[in-house]
Structures are given as structure tokens and as C-alpha cells.
Amino acid sequence: MAVRKAKKSKTKSKAKSKAAPKKVLKLKSKKPAAKAGAKANGLPKPSSKPFGQAGKALDGVKILDFTHVQSGPTCTQLLAWLGADCIKVERPGVGDITRTQLRDVKGADSLYFTMLNHNKRSITIDSKHPKGKDILNRLIKHCDVLVENFAPGALDRMGLTWEYIHKLNPRMIVASVKGFGPGPYEDCKVYENVAQCTGGAASTTGFLDGPPLVTGAQIGDSGTGLHLALGIVSALYQRNRTGRGQRVLCAMQDGVLNLSRVKLRDQQRLKHGPLTEYSQYGQGIPFKEATPRAGNDSGGGQPGWILKCKGYETDPNAYIYFITQAPVWASICDLIGKPEWKTDPEYATPPARLPKLKAIFGVIEEWTMTKTKFEVMDLCNAKDIPVGPILSMKEIAEEKSLRDTGTVVEVDHPTRGKYLTVGNPIKLSDSISDVKRSPLLGEHTEEILTKVLGYSSKEVAEIKMSGAITPPDKPAKAEAA
Known about the structure:
38% of the residues lie in helices and 12% in strands.
């Protein structure tokens, strides 16, 4: 029975194979090969325009920017650099509080504001005014992403709950920076240094015998803004598949912890013995229950320290970070005039060197003190020895290579003149960033109302008269008797 079935099916398959060529030819004629390859994997065929001339990565993405101070503006500025149309909503007559904070030029926006709000448009709206609320509703329907870093609950108190926004625009992505995620502290306000302390960075920064320290890098504010930008781009990408928006939350505590993950790594390693790459191990100082402050230890398993260079007596930044990486130990010995250390069993291996690291760095420092930090860098780089000069902000501002790459940019501003700012740290070969000055308060209000939201000139005049986009009148001063 089985044999007969096999023969029968074999006959059928032969019959089918004879007819197959006609079907294949028919399919080919329906969809020519050239057209079939035009949208491989659902993507458009590669652009024929030269790289850098096919627009920007986020062209067409519209951001409704409710951010202020630093964490939120860091996020939206990055999106604007990548091509998004970022519409910054500000209070009439007041604007982002940083416009006047740390002001160095009288009557002009501060560097605090200008360096965080490039490539944006500013519209002033009184969100409590009925016409102002109508403008916000139109903006919500128009935009793809709403970004905010208000205090907990502030957006809800404005009537802009997730349910309200999602009903107006189901495709809207609502992205928020908060101090803490859900839990006992979620209603607490958080600032930069608070985030560094609660995210684990401060407890592990500083020297072992000193107090906890915060770092000068804004890992709480700007670091969380960078995390939020990635979340937004991911949500936009997912929306291409689902057709709907979603909420994106980045807590500052979470962002700092993510940047401090190696210290959480070390916390777990402590259960299995001392952290041998920490300098305190070589000094015979016992470890306690928590990851300790490690001074200028490398943190990556390679012993490193900051050493004095020529001129340190008068220059607070005449220092260099020096790593005694095992693969280049022989080159280090030759360079500092200690060739005998290469074969001496007391120095030849990493385990042998661990108890003597303080003394070893002392000898290396005697050598670095005879040379400038740049001379040390040149000599070490030639031997693949990892080092890094301590660059001051003045040196960074004057570094030509950073200007050439757009990492440091000079911008002209109508009220404060020319100033230096940080450019886009993300370089895309087919999405070339340019840095445009920050907007004046409400500079683009009328432009957005007419060209973006479609208000008529008559309607704009009515809105102006209503006070929905202008600061309230100041009470008249009483005349002197």
C-alpha cells in the first residue's frame, strides 16, 4: 500500500513539474526583477543623492517641547540637531527660567539657556487661557512627540493627562524626565546633584579617606536627557509597526545608576573577595560592605592614576592620567628608565605589582614631572601606552580639532553676540548636523500659529488681543501725591 501511494504521488509530482515553468514565467512577468528589488525588506531603495545631502535623520518628526532647565532641553536639543522640528512652549513674558539664570550679558539670554536650546522654535502660550488651551490642543494633534520634565503631576494638573493626549492624538509619544521612578520617592523633586547622590555616583566618587563627591559632568541632568532621546527614537521606530504612541519615562536616579553600573558590578564582586585592582588593596586597607571610593583608580581592571607633569606648581591642570597596562609594561619600563623591572620577579607580573602600585606610580611621576603633559602623551602614544592629559575648559575651547569636527561651535546671537557652544556629539555620515542659535522668547509664535497650525491672520489678531500669547499687563504704578 505504501509503495503504491509513493508511486502515485511521484506521478503527480511529475505532472506538476511539467506545468511549473509556465507559472514561474507568469510570476516573473507580473513583477519585473528591477521593481522587486526596489523595496527590499520593505525599505525604499538607496538614495542616489550624495551622502550628507539626503536630509537629516529625523526630518519630518515634530516635537512639542514642554521642557525647561537642563535635562529635558538636552533631550530635545539633540533631537533638533538630528533634524526634528522642535517647538518650545514657554510662558509669555517669562519663558524658560534659565533665560535669566547665571546671566553674564545684561538684557540677553544666558549661556545656560542658549547652550541647551539650539535649533528650536519658541512659541509663547498661556496654557490656562481658553484660546491658549485651543492652541495646545492643535499642537498635540500636529506633533509626534511631547517632551516634558515638569515636577511630578504638573502635566496632569494642566489637564494634559495621558488619556487626554492619547484621545486627541493616538500616535502621540509622551516622554518624561522625572527624579525617581514609581516607588516611595516618585513625588520628590530632583536636581543634578541629588540624582548623582541617589544614583550611586557620589558614594563611589572621591578619595577613600574623604567625603563623597559629585562630578562636574552633568550625568544626572544631561545624562538622563540623552537616555530619554534614545527612548523617544525607539518609540518612534516602534510606532512604524504598531501605529500608536506610548509613554516614555526616564528617571534621573535610573540614568545615573546606568552610568555607574561598574560600581554595582564591584558591589557584587565584593562578596567573593577584595577588589584587587583598587589601590587600597595594595595598601593593605581592608574592604567594607559597600563599594568604596576609589580616588583616581581606573575602574576597568587596569591600574591607573593621575600624575603631575612639568609646570604643575603653577598650572592646576598640568597632570596626566597614566595606565600601567600589562601588555605594554615592558615599554613603560624602558620609557621611565627602569628596564630592570621587566625581568625582576618583584615587578614583572601584574600580581607582583599590585602591592607596590603607589610606589610604582611615584617612580613614573618622577619621569612625568620632567615633561609637559603633551610631551608625555606623544612619547607614550608612540609606544601604545594609554594616557590622557587633563585638559582644562580653556584648552578644550581653543582646540582646533574640536572646532573642525563641530564638537565645539561658535554661534552668533542677536542680543549677546558670538559665543562658544557644544555641537552635536553624535556624528552621522548621511545626516549632517548644523548648530543654529537658540530662539528669542516667543520669536516664532506667529509663524507657528499661521504656517504650522493654520490660523488665519484675523484669528491671530484675536488671539493676540485675548492675551493668550502675550504677558499679562503690569498693574499701573500709583502716582505720587
